[in-house]
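User: Design a sequence. Structure:
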C-alpha cells in the first residue's frame, strides 16, 4: 500500500512539473502591471507588543496603493476568563521601482506608512475585599485597553503566475498610549490578485 501511494504521488509530481515545459506561450500569457490590481489574502505585521494580522485587501492605482488589514481572536486565559483581541490597520503605499513583467513573475518595491489600532477586551474575576483572605467573593471587571499604531518603512511585492502575491516589508513602528513600544517591524503575507 505504501509503495503504491509513493508511486502515485511521484507520478503526479513529475506530471505537474513536466506540463509547463510543454505549454505553448501565447500573447495572452504575458502579464502587465495594469492587470489584477486588487488582492485579497492574509497578512501579519510584527509591531512590538502590538501584532496586526488577519484578512488583507490591497488595491493599486498606478504608483499609489492602499492595504487594509483587520483581524482578531477570542480565547480564554488560564483562569477561564474570556479575552478578545482585535486589530485593524491601513497602509498607504507608493511604488518607487518595478521590474519589467515576464511571463511568470514581476516585482515592485514601495515605501509605506502605517496607521491602525489594536486592543483587547478581557473580563477578569477580582476579589471584592483583597485585604480579607477569608472572603472569596469576586466580581467581574471588564478591561478594554486600546492602542494607536503608527509606522513607516519599505517593502517588496513579488507576483508569480499573475495571481500569487507575496509581500515582504520592513520598517519601524510602535503603539501608544496603554503599552508604549517602538522598534523594528516586519510584515509578510500571501494574497491572490484579481
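Assistant: Done.
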Amino acid at each position: 500500500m505504501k509503495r503504491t501511494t509513493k508511486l502515485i504521488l511521484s507520478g503526479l509530481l513529475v506530471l505537474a512539473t513536466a506540463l509547463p515545459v510543454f505549454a505553448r506561450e501565447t500573447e495572452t500569457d504575458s502579464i502587465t502591471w495594469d492587470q489584477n490590481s486588487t488582492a485579497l489574502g492574509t497578512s501579519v505585521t510584527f509591531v512590538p507588543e502590538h501584532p496586526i494580522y488577519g484578512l488583507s485587501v490591497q488595491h493599486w492605482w498606478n504608483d499609489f496603493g492602499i492595504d487594509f488589514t483587520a483581524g482578531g481572536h477570542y480565547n480564554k486565559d488560564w483562569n477561564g476568563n474570556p479575552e478578545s483581541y482585535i486589530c485593524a490597520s491601513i497602509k498607504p503605499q507608493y511604488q518607487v521601482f518595478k521590474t519589467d513583467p515576464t511571463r511568470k513573475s514581476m516585482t515592485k518595491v514601495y515605501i509605506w506608512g502605517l496607521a491602525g489600532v489594536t486592543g483587547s477586551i478581557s473580563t477578569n474575576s477580582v476579589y471584592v475585599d483583597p485585604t480579607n483572605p477569608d472572603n472569596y467573593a469576586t466580581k467581574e471587571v471588564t478591561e478594554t485597553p486600546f492602542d494607536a499604531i503608527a509606522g513607516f518603512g519599505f517593502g517588496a511585492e513579488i507576483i508569480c503566475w499573475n495571481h500569487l502575491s507575496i509581500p515582504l516589508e520592513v520598517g519601524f513602528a510602535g503603539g501608544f498610549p496603554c503599552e508604549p513600544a517602538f522598534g523594528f517591524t516586519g510584515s509578510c503575507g500571501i494574497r491572490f490578485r484579481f
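The longest helix spans residues 2-22. DSSP finds one helix and nine strands in the chain.
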